[in-house]
Design goal:
Elements lengths: L1 E5 L4 H13 L4 E6 L19 E5 L5 H7 L5 E4 L6 H6 L2 H20 L4 E7 L24 H20 L3 E6 L2 E2 L8 H10 L4 E4 L5 E3 L1 E2 H14 L5 E4 L4 E3 H12 L6 E4 L14 H7 L7 H14 L1 H8 L2 H10 L2
Parallel strand pairs: 1-2, 1-4, 2-3, 4-5, 5-6, 6-11, 7-10, 8-13
Antiparallel strand pairs: 9-12
Helix pairs in contact: 1-7, 4-5, 6-8
The protein binds nicotinamide-adenine-dinucleotide (NAD) and thymidine-5'-diphosphate.
Length: about 325
């Protein structure tokens, strides 16, 4: 099988390529990634000389390039996106450009070259925010995105589904909860807190720390994507979640304990505007129809992840001392 992966130099996409080429060593992957601040070819060092892997630096919004690349492709797995809620609060222009128009460009290219299967990677954030006692999100939950990021992802999900209904494009969609693991850019909660502590810096907890996320290890997410690609029904959506609902305060305590720090390292900072209270995913459909369930429990996953950041300081120090630091200084004055 010949696969076009978009955004394969980012966190989840690079883990996906590493996973896929190890499991399906005869498949060929083209990785199309523009290398924004979040794209990092260091994530793909182990496979960069694999003859079945090709990297193309380019923009998913570039119609000419995308049309060229999809020739003879069997499957597109679309990860590329602007992915950080806080950045979408500062400005959402790039989110609309990449997440909405970029998805449209890929869909048109797939439509115009018959026989291409399209798998769209999305998020549970498209469903909005749950109260503490609300039932979890599932495939029937109405869309109600609250942040510019989740609104742009919701728009892309609707477009993908529209191409199935209108043009009979063979699509599937997966909506996953919060991922953690190796190669996650240190602006998201877990890698930011772990790397800050490894540098002896404080950790910025938003608001009262009571917001809840459903954490999934990135390898479990990618196994889920694999199951949906191989066994999912065309035109359908699958919700993937980790079954690990934890408040940000709980996660913070776990990380502090594992790294041997006390609560004095927490800096309570102003809340994120429009901060979604709770995300949680009901995985009944994927368990029942695809026999998929998360395998990595949070205790093991977070220990593994912290060890990875401890043992790969060069990877994140390079990021934190570069453009990212300047970005952070500009936006947050830290
Ligand atoms: P990331 O920010 O780490 O990586 C995104 C990648 O996309 C980067 O390599 C970037 O260079 C690339 N990219 C951005 N704009 C591009 C463009 N115009 N053309 C080509 N490449 C471009 O993101 P991630 O956390 O790995 O998320 C990947 C996907 O998974 C996204 O679609 C995101 O919405 C979805 N998702 C993420 C999570 C999570 O917890 N991180 C959870 C559920 C779903
Ligand atoms: P994040 O990792 O940005 O993912 P998302 O916003 O997509 O869920 O944030 C996870 C949770 O952690 C969210 O409730 C916001 C909170 N958070 C902090 O408290 N401090 C931080 O510095 C960051 C980045 C996030």
């Amino acid at each position: 099988m010949k696969i076009l992966v978009t955004g394969g130099a980012g966190f989840i996409g690079s883990n996906f390529i590493n996973y896929w080429l190890e499991k399906y060593s005869n498949d060929k992957i083209i990785n199309l990634d523009i290398l924004t601040y979040a794209g990092n070819l260091d994530n793909l060092k182990t496979i960069e000389s694999n003859p079945n892997y090709t990297f193309v630096k380019g923009d998913i919004c570039d119609e000419r390039l995308v049309n060229e690349l999809v020739k003879n492709i069997d499957l597109i797995v679309h990860f590329a996106a602007e992915s950080h809620v806080d950045r979408s609060v500062v400005s959402c222009e790039d989110f609309i450009r990449t997440n909405v128009n970029g998805t449209r460009v890929l869909l048109d290219a797939a439509k115009n070259n018959k026989g291409i299967r399209f798998h769209h990677i999305s998020t549970d954030e498209v469903f909005g925010s749950l109260g503490f006692s609300d039932p979890k999100f599932n495939e029937f939950t109405p869309y109600n995105p609250k942040s510019p990021y989740s609104a742009s992802k919701a728009a892309s999900d609707h477009l993908v589904r529209a191409y199935f209904h209108t043009h009979k494009l063979p699509i599937t969609i997966s909506n996953c909860s919060n991922n953690y693991g190796e190669y996650q850019f240190p602006e998201k909660l877990i890698p930011l807190f772990v790397t800050n502590l490894l540098e002896g810096k404080k950790i910025p907890l938003y608001g009262d720390g009571k917001n809840v996320r459903d954490w999934i290890y990135v390898g479990d997410h990618n196994r889920g994507v694999d199951c949906v690609i191989r066994k999912g029904r065309i035109g359908e959506t699958y919700c993937l979640g980790g079954g690990n609902e934890l408040s940000n305060s709980e996660i913070t305590s776990i990380i502090l304990n594992l790294l041997g720090f006390g609560e004095e390292m927490i800096e309570y900072v102003s809340d994120r505007p429009g901060h979604d209270l709770r995300y949680a995913i009901d995985i009944t459909k994927v368990e029942r129809d695809l026999n998929w369930y998360p395998e990595v429990d949070f205790d093991a996953g977070i220990k593994h992840t912290i060890n990875w950041y401890k043992n790969n300081k060069e990877w994140w120090q390079k990021i934190k001392s570069g453009e990212y630091r300047n970005y952070y200084r500009r936006q947050y004055g830290t």
